[in-house]
Description:
The protein is an alpha+beta fold. 29% of the residues lie in helices and 35% in strands.
Amino acid sequence: MNKRSVGSAKEKLASAYLMKQGVRITDRNFRVRQGEIDLIGYDADTLVFFEVKYRKSAAYGLPQEAVGQSKQLQICRVAAFYRNLHRIPADTPVRYDVIAILKDEVTWIKNAFPDRLRW
């Protein structure tokens, strides 16, 4: 199995997990020139941008540790584009979460990082 198919399978696992938790997924793999957001959805009334990270083992660190500041900034830029494109009202609550998958264990990290465009 190549990296792309593994990534796709883990994003499906994350999506299924989130839907069981009550999240309404609205978009998957939203891509623009600036980058990509794996999953986008609503947790109650909060618009959430999800980054899905997978590791077979913790030998090279935990999955969530791969979401550094440059990746966070990229996600925030793509999220701003998405919000503008879909005319999401400015007062809509927004959150950035990470879905960390280690082997087959899913961990949902809410508010994993702040909006890097607003500091």
